[in-house]
Design brief:
The chain is mostly helical. The chain folds into two domains: 4-89, Multidrug-efflux Transporter Regulator, Chain: A, Domain 2 (Orthogonal Bundle); 92-153, no CATH class. The protein is 46% helix and 6% strand. It has seven helices and three strands; from the N terminus they run E-H-H-E-E-H-H-H-H-H. The chain has helices at residues 7-14, 18-26, 46-58, 63-70, 81-89, 91-109, 120-123, and strands spanning 4-6, 33-34, 40-43. It has a three-stranded antiparallel sheet. The termini are far apart.
C-alpha cells in the first residue's frame, strides 16, 4: 500500500481537518479504501480532489455543486491537465459573478445596501420609506436592483 495515505497524512498534507475529510467522504466527494484494521487509506490522488474542494468552496460553490463537478472527473486516478481544463472552463463565469458580487459589497459598505435593516433614520436618501422592500426580500441594491424613484413600484 505505498501509494495509500492515512487520514492523518491526508489531513496534514491538505490542511483539512480529519473530521472534514470524513464528512467529504460521507458526502461522496472523496473515497477511501479500508485497511484490514478498518482504518481509512486514501489514494494519493485524493489530495488533488481535496484541493479542488477547498478552492471551489472559496469561490462560493456549494457542496452539491462541488459534487456535481467532481462527478465529471475520473474517480480512480489523478485528473489530467485536460480533465482540469475542461472542468475549469465552466468556472470563469462563476468567478466573474463572484467578483461582481464582491465589488457591489464593497460599494455597499460605503452606503445603504437596501438590506431592510429599517435604519430609516440613516437611509432616508438611499431608501426613503423603505422602497427597497417593494423589490423583494434581501439586500436588493446589493444584488443589483436599482433604487425605486418617486412613488412608482
Amino acid at each position: 500500500m505505498p501509494n495509500l495515505l492515512t487520514i492523518g497524512e491526508v489531513s496534514r498534507r491538505s490542511g483539512v481537518a480529519s473530521s472534514a475529510l470524513r464528512f467529504y467522504e460521507e458526502r461522496g466527494l472523496i473515497r477511501s479504501e479500508r485497511a484490514g484494521s478498518g482504518h481509512r487509506r486514501y489514494p494519493r490522488a485524493v489530495l488533488r480532489r481535496i484541493a479542488f474542494i477547498v478552492f471551489a468552496q472559496r469561490i462560493g460553490l456549494t457542496l452539491e455543486e462541488i459534487g456535481r463537478e467532481l462527478a465529471k472527473l475520473p474517480p480512480d486516478r489523478a485528473p489530467t491537465r485536460r480533465d482540469w481544463s475542461s472542468l475549469s472552463r465552466t468556472w470563469s463565469a462563476r468567478i466573474d459573478q463572484r467578483i461582481a458580487e464582491l465589488e457591489r459589497l464593497k460599494v455597499g459598505l460605503e452606503g445603504c445596501i437596501g438590506c431592510g435593516c429599517l435604519s430609516l433614520d440613516r437611509c432616508r436618501l438611499s431608501n426613503p420609506d423603505d422602497r427597497a422592500a417593494r423589490l423583494g426580500p434581501g439586500p436588493r441594491y446589493w444584488i443589483g436592483d436599482r433604487p425605486l424613484t418617486g412613488d412608482s413600484v
